[in-house]
Design a protein that fits this description.
GIY-YIG endonuclease; 5 domains; 7-stranded parallel β-sheet; 31 strands; binds adenosine-5'-diphosphate; 6-stranded mixed β-sheet; binds zinc ion; 24% strand; Rossmann fold; 33% helix; alpha/beta; 21 helices
């Protein structure tokens, strides 16, 4: 048997399949599409994925190399195809796509974790009663095994167990370590699922119909203008309308039909919450996958899914690659979140990949949000939920005009926060900028402290005692004198979360009213979870942070929400800037006034009090907002009415970067498609010491755009004169 493999290299120029013989120890059954091999390749040993099998190779026998080993994990064949599709769709290579899709443990050849498990024998049972001589430790171990059944050996004392094994009183074996069965205490929290509200039932109806085995989904189940698949739904429900319960019911129906489920959430921080809700309903068949897990744990969860022990995968972006067979339902919660876009190569979009997987598996796709993307409104059948489950109204949103003000907090905000403390309530304050101040300048000569590697200002982090670049991580001590003119007057401009925290601590903090901060400077997934937990558990207090604080957390009793600089997201030169602003305000309003004492109140501080996204968000009018965005996008030729592909050329020498971008432009245009336009090359700010030029290709037809870019990129990569230039291709840039 011959294995035709995709070697897992990063090199863009390596394409195609490579033939290998199997190692003598391997059996033919081990060789399937998706098997992982370790192979000699270009003088190194690397992992490779079997893409095809054959009986003979076209290579001469003496040129045919032999694989070194077959690795224990195997990729389902549909994921190999998916990797090839992703490589095409995002102008990458199958090898790179496979590397983002495989858990790291699998390519390292990680074994399943095994542990010693002990069980009591019949002789052991009688030994407990018949006066057999036992030490205290031996008696304790036997008693425990008699009471609890087979148990991991370590806590009972391996030496003790080995001695008992020698006497035939226990048996000890090395077994695959199962996760400890989650106890039923979890499911007892859930009790029975709540009866659905009328809106939930109405939303679930069409989803359940599409899930039914007989559904061919023909009649009346298309997107608003007849586009999209009959199995793609957008659950457009206001915050607190109970979207998760709809997902749970849809998942239940899918599992009952013998099929499997993937649930995607936008943030690692939200996976425990989602996991808890799904585990409470479905117990041990739920597995979790996200990049914050150790390789070993992630690999274990991956194997549980691949083996069919777990049938529901819950996780962030990469869980879209869960190795589940026969997927019946894929849910993308908070579908408007940009974290669904992967930042490395291939720059895949988990929402697009989810739609592809759903189509391949004949599964139903449900994407949900209170602030859906125009793309989803355009492409899917929309199911609306307009009311909160608890019957409360959405919180009142007040716009506070900050023009002409210097203090970061509006007087009304100060008053509202003081009232909140007085009343023993909770508040969330959102400021999408971390650090103490945005930039430092010299009071005498005007010098601005910049990153030496990137053309951006350094941000002051007072607690850390440094100024830092938020792009490359470069750090310097906080300057006290200007290196250009010697002045000691260093001015600080703007306020970030760190400074705001400092001010609020001084103004408000008390033992019964903690002031907590959550942003990317809160190191580590666990530390963040602890802060959220503290805020959750405290009877009152303030949580300050970047957009992280506005996302999906279900705090029952937040009465006040504050957005400090609502325009911040609008200042980006990006056609999605207004959507981000709208979503941020709406999502924060969504955290406010849930099941608390009062209906809740949101304050939005802004320099542009009449800006459309701010006014419409204050009116909770996502319908008008998204309709307007669709009209605007149509007029300007933006997605979903066209496809954009962005290519960035980066090099130490600006000339090289420009030449590569210009060559790309010429080649894309030479492809000669009528509906294709190229913008650029436009210079971008220097990043990590590299000059950068950007090209944006726009075409009405997606395949045309992607193909033209792919061919141009391949040609430029092959040009030896330009080999110092790094190219990065982003289809559907965010
Ligand atoms: P969304 O995701 O739409 O913002 P959630 O799914 O978080 O809303 O639901 C909000 C709250 O309402 C949750 O605490 C949930 O347990 C509760 N809930 C959902 N559906 C029902 C229902 N049918 N009856 C009672 N409570 C419900
Ligand atoms: Zn100076
Ligand atoms: Zn930098």
């Amino acid at each position: 048997m011959i294995a035709r493999v995709i070697p897992l290299t990063q090199t863009r120029a390596i394409r195609g399949l490579f033939d290998y013989r199997l190692p003598p120890s391997a059996t033919a059954e081990e060789l399937r599409v998706g098997s992982l091999l370790r192979v000699p390749f270009a003088g190194r040993t690397i992992a490779a994925v079997v893409a095809q099998t054959a009986t003979v190779s076209e290579l001469a026998p003496e040129r045919l190399a032999t694989a070194l080993a077959v690795l224990p994990a195997r990729l389902p064949a549909d994921l190999v195809e998916l990797a090839v599709w992703i490589a095409d769709e995002y102008c990458s290579t199958p090898a790179r796509a496979l590397q983002v899709l495989l858990p790291a443990g699998a390519t390292r050849g990680l074994q399943e974790r095994r542990a010693l498990v002990a069980a009591i024998t019949d002789a052991g049972r009688s030994a407990l009663g018949d006066g057999t001589r036992l030490t205290a430790a031996q008696r304790a171990a036997l008693t425990a095994l008699a009471a609890h059944g087979p148990t991991t050996a370590a806590p009972l004392g391996t030496a003790t167990l080995r001695r008992l094994e020698g006497r035939g009183l226990v048996s000890v074996a090395l077994e695959v370590q199962r996760r400890p069965a989650r106890t039923h205490s979890v499911s007892s929290i859930a009790a029975a699922p709540p009866p659905l509200t009328a809106e939930q039932a109405a939303a679930l109806g069409p989803i359940a119909a599409a899930l039914a085995p007989s559904a061919d989904g023909a009649a009346g189940a298309e997107g608003e203008d007849g586009r999209g698949s009959a199995r793609e739904f957008l659950l457009h429900g206001v915050t607190g309308s109970g979207k998760t319960e709809v997902y749970l019911r849809a998942a239940e129906a899918t599992l009952a039909a013998g099929r499997t489920v993937i649930i995607l959430v936008p943030e690692i921080a939200l996976t425990p919450q989602a996991l808890a809700r799904f585990s409470a309903r479905f117990g041990d068949i739920v597995a979790v996958l996200h990049s914050g897990m150790s390789d070993g744990r992630r690999h274990d969860e991956w194997l549980r899914l691949a083996r069919g022990e777990a049938r529901v995968a819950v996780g962030a972006r990469s869980a879209v690659f869960a190795p589940l067979p026969d997927i019946g339902l894929i849910v993308v919660d908070e579908e408007h979140e940009s974290s669904y876009k992967h930042e490395g190569d291939p720059r895949y979009d988990a929402r697009t990949v989810a739609a592809r997987r759903a189509r391949v598996h004949g599964a139903v796709l449900v994407v949900g949000s209170a602030t859906p993307r125009p793309e989803s409104v355009y492409a899917s059948r929309r199911l609306l939920m307009r009311a909160r489950v608890d019957g409360r109204g959405l919180p009142a949103v007040e716009i506070l005009d900050m023009r002409g003000r210097h203090n970061p907090l509006h007087p009304d905000t100060r008053l509202a926060l003081a009232d909140c403390r007085h009343a023993g309530g909770k508040a969330i304050v959102l400021l999408n900028r971390r650090g103490w101040s945005n930039f430092l300048s010299c009071g005498s000569c005007g010098r601005v402290w910049m990153c030496p590697n990137c053309e951006v200002a350094l941000v002051l982090h007072r607690a850390g005692g440094h100024v830092a670049c938020h792009h490359c991580g470069h750090r310097e001590r906080v300057p006290t004198t200007c290196p250009d003119c010697g002045s000691v007057s260093v001015a600080r401009h703007g306020a970030g979360t760190e400074r705001l925290e400092h001010e609020l601590v001084a103004a408000l903090a008390a033992p019964e009213f903690p002031v907590l901060r959550l942003d990317a400077d809160t190191a580590g997934h666990d530390a963040r979870a602890r802060i959220l937990e503290r805020f959750h558990a405290a009877p009152s207090g303030v949580l300050i942070g970047t957009q992280m604080v506005a996302k999906g957390h279900d705090f029952a009793d937040v009465g006040l929400g504050v957005v400090i600089d609502a325009d911040q997201t609008m200042r980006f030169p990006d056609f999605r800037a207004e959507e981000r602003t709208f979503a941020l305000i709406t999502q924060l309003a969504g955290r406010t006034g849930r099941a608390g004492r009062a209906a809740g109140r949101v304050l939005v501080q802004t320099m542009e009090p009449s800006a459309r996204p701010i006014v419409l968000a204050a009116q909770h009018d996502s319908e008008t907002f998204v309709r307007g965005e669709l009209r605007r996008r149509k007029a300007l030729g933006y997605p979903p009415f066209a496809t954009l592909v962005r290519v960035i050329c980066a090099a130490l020498e600006a000339d090289g970067a420009f030449t590569a971008a210009d060559a790309l432009r010429a080649r894309v245009l030479a492809a000669g498609a009528a509906d294709l336009a190229v913008l650029g090359p436009a210079p971008l700010f220097m990043l990590r010491g590299k000059a950068r030029y950007q090209l944006v290709v726009r075409a009405l037809d997606r395949a045309t755009a992607v193909r033209a870019v792919r061919e141009a990129v391949d040609a430029v990569v092959a040009d030896r004169a330009l080999r110092e230039v790094a190219l990065s291709v982003d289809v559907d840039p965010q």
